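pasting for the record
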Amino acid sequence: MYCHLHLRQGTVYVPTMGKVDKGFYRGVEPVAVVSASNTESLRQGLRAAIARGNPSVPRLRRSEYPPPVLLKYAGVKSWSTFQQGMSTWSIKEKNGSYEIVGYRRHLTSRSSVEDPDQKIEFPAGTAVDSVVERMIAILQEAARQRPS
C-alpha cells in the first residue's frame, strides 16, 4: 500500500494513489481535502485513503496524461504553483510494516525526493491507527511551523 499526501497553505490533500504497474502510481479520485487543524477529518481522510489501497489504473501514453488531480482541488493551474510552499509525505506498508517518509526538494531538479532524515519506520504489526495518529501529529506540527 502506498499513500501520498501534501500539505499546502494549511490544507492537506490526500489523493487515492492508483497503481499503474511495476510500482508506478498516480493520484486519482477520490481526493480528501482537509484543514490540517481538523484532527478528526484528517483521521477519516487518511484512514479512507489507506483502506482504498491502490486500485489499478490504466497506463497512459504521455499525450493522454491529464493534469495532476490535485490542481483542481487547490484551485491552481500548474504543478509548479501547487509546489510553492508545499510539503509532501508518504505512508507505505509492505508485509505488515509501515513507514512514513517525508520529502524534500531535489537540489538540481524541480522534483521531490525522499528525505532519509524524515523517515519513520514502525515495528512489524503496528496498527494502522498508530501510523495515522503519528502522521496527523507531523502534519499539524508542519502546519504550525509554516502558517498559510
